[in-house]
Every structure is written in C-alpha cells, then in structure tokens.
Write a structure and sequence with these properties.
By secondary structure, the chain is an alpha+beta fold. Helix content is 35%, strand content 14%. It folds into 2 domains: 1-97, no CATH class; 108-194, no CATH class. It has helices at residues 2-33, 54-61, 87-92, 99-107, 149-155, 161-172; strands at 36-40, 47-52, 70-73, 130-132, 138-140, 157-159, 182-184, 190-192. The protein has a 3-stranded antiparallel β-sheet with strand order 1-2-3. β7 (182-184) and β8 form a beta hairpin. The longest helix is centred in the first third of the chain and has 32 residues, at 2-33. The termini are far apart.
C-alpha cells in the first residue's frame, strides 16, 4: 500500500513538473513573439508592420512545435492571403525587428531638439517621446503608423515629453503664447532667433529749449 502511494505521488510530481515546465516554455515563447514588428515585405520590398499571434504560438508549444503565424499586418486585408514569408525575418531575430527596440535605439544618444537634454530611459506606458517634423509639427512617435517610422526618422527631430507638451500648447493656443522666430543651431536644434535691438529715435527738442 505504501509503495503504491509512493508510485502515485511520483507520477503526480512528474506530471506537475512537466506541466509547469511546459507553461514556463510557453510563457517564454509568448514574450518572444509579443509586440509589433517591422519587416521588409517580400512582395513589394517595402516596410510593413506585423504582429505575431503570440498566444497561439505559446499554446501550440504545449502540444508540440510552436505555430508561428501573423494575426496583424499593415498590408491587410488587401494581402491577407499571402504566404507570410516575412516570418523568416521575425524568426531569425525577433528582438531586432521589434518596434519598441527600433524606436528606443533611434532615440538613444540623441538630444531634444528644443531643450537639448539627452534622452534617458524611454517610458513606454506614459510620457512618450515625440518627433518634430520639418514643418515644426510635433507628434508622439506612437501616433505615426509603425511602417512609416523608418522614413520619418530620416527627416524628423527628437523631442522630449516636456517640450512636446509646451509645443502642443503653443500650437493649440496661439493667442495665449508669445511666438518667437526660430532658427537651426550648429547641432540642428531649434533655438530662438535673436531679434535686432531697435535703434532709439532721436527726440526733437521743442523750439526755445
């Protein structure tokens, strides 16, 4: 009787251990594939934003090899029936093509176009950093479609959260803000342009004085 109980207990321990091990592996797969990514579409060789069905990949691992498939693409629904050949890029280096990492690497080592403070750790859930267009329109980076970010990064300037708030307030309330002319500094930053000091007009003296 005691031997039978020991055998049953050992079997239960093995089953629980196997289940826990599968759950841990599945969770790691979920973390590996979650999030939006940028790939080069094999069909038109343009940047596309895709997202892997991370939950499906994780759950399918519990019964065998993980099934990695897309559940979102910026070219859908027009190209929804494609062969998803771009997944080879995701599987080759899932961290490199992750949008969060691409954006973080772009801001790294840069200074705000207005205050010139260097960017530190990027806050993803709040206080998003922003971008300044050549027309001096400020937008948060996550307001721009992900597939357009590589092109945007070529001509836009980085803006910190505080300066983004100030610039947005200025754009939305032009009657409450004193506008100043701006010009580019040596590092490409925007700096106030010094206005020439007006020359005082000589006062005419009244006759007899």
């Amino acid at each position: 009787m005691i031997l039978t109980n020991l055998i049953i207990a050992a079997i239960l321990i093995i089953l629980v251990g196997t289940l826990l091990s599968g759950l841990v592996v599945g969770f790691r797969i979920f973390l590996r594939y979650r999030g939006q990514r940028l790939v080069t579409c094999p069909e038109n060789h343009q940047t596309a934003a895709v997202q892997v069905n991370a939950a499906q990949a994780a759950s399918s691992r519990l019964v065998g090899k993980p099934e990695v498939r897309l559940n979102q693409c910026s070219r859908w629904p027009e190209k929804r029936d494609c062969g998803q050949e771009c997944l080879s890029q995701v599987n080759a280096d899932p961290e490199h093509c992750l949008v969060w990492n691409i954006v973080s690497n772009w801001y790294k080592g840069k200074n705000c176009a207005y205050c010139q403070k260097p960017f530190g750790e990027i806050h993803w859930h709040d206080r998003h950093p922003a971008l300044l267009s050549p027309e001096r329109v400020a937008k948060q980076w996550n307001e721009i479609p992900a597939e357009q970010l590589p092109k945007v990064f070529e001509t836009y300037l980085p803006v910190c959260w505080n300066c983004y708030l100030a610039e947005t307030f200025r754009q939305q309330n032009p009657d409450r803000v004193l506008n100043r002319n701006w010009e580019r500094g040596a590092a490409g930053e925007y700096v106030p342009r010094e206005e020439p000091t007006p020359t005082p007009t000589p006062q005419k003296r009244a006759a007899g004085h």
